[in-house]
Amino acid sequence: GPQPPAALSELTGDIVVLLSRQPLLPFAWPLTGSPEYFVAIRTPEPGRPNDATVLRNIIAHELGHTLGLTHHRTSITLMCGPCSSVAAADSTLEWLPLTDVDRERLRALHPAP
């Protein structure tokens, strides 16, 4: 598969987040052979309604992938894919919720010490 550029591979951090003004679909990309992730987020255009809420939930959604969460079809929830930005824009909630399955998966993948 595609390999990240050396400049990215040489960064030290578990998660590297790129905020871009370029038109891109947000993603969380696991780096080959490591537990690290490269996350890319498009910053919103100024002045659009609900931008802060949408951006907040897109970032949380992509970080959810780095924690092991996957897409599902339960609308108006954080990990709904590909509906999370639409759900966030239409929601009156500041944060889209996790489902019970999401919570169970997080507990299984990251048990308390």
Automatic annotation (TrEMBL):
<dbReference type="GO" id="GO:0031012">
    <property type="term" value="C:extracellular matrix"/>
</dbReference>
<dbReference type="InterPro" id="IPR024079">
    <property type="entry name" value="MetalloPept_cat_dom_sf"/>
</dbReference>
<keyword id="KW-0645">Protease</keyword>
<protein>
    <recommendedName>
        <fullName>Peptidase M10 metallopeptidase domain-containing protein</fullName>
    </recommendedName>
</protein>
<dbReference type="GO" id="GO:0006508">
    <property type="term" value="P:proteolysis"/>
</dbReference>
<keyword id="KW-0378">Hydrolase</keyword>
<dbReference type="GO" id="GO:0008270">
    <property type="term" value="F:zinc ion binding"/>
</dbReference>
<keyword id="KW-0862">Zinc</keyword>
<feature type="domain" description="Peptidase M10 metallopeptidase">
    <location>
        <begin position="50"/>
        <end position="84"/>
    </location>
</feature>
<dbReference type="Pfam" id="PF00413">
    <property type="entry name" value="Peptidase_M10"/>
</dbReference>
<keyword id="KW-0479">Metal-binding</keyword>
<dbReference type="InterPro" id="IPR001818">
    <property type="entry name" value="Pept_M10_metallopeptidase"/>
</dbReference>
<dbReference type="GO" id="GO:0004222">
    <property type="term" value="F:metalloendopeptidase activity"/>
</dbReference>
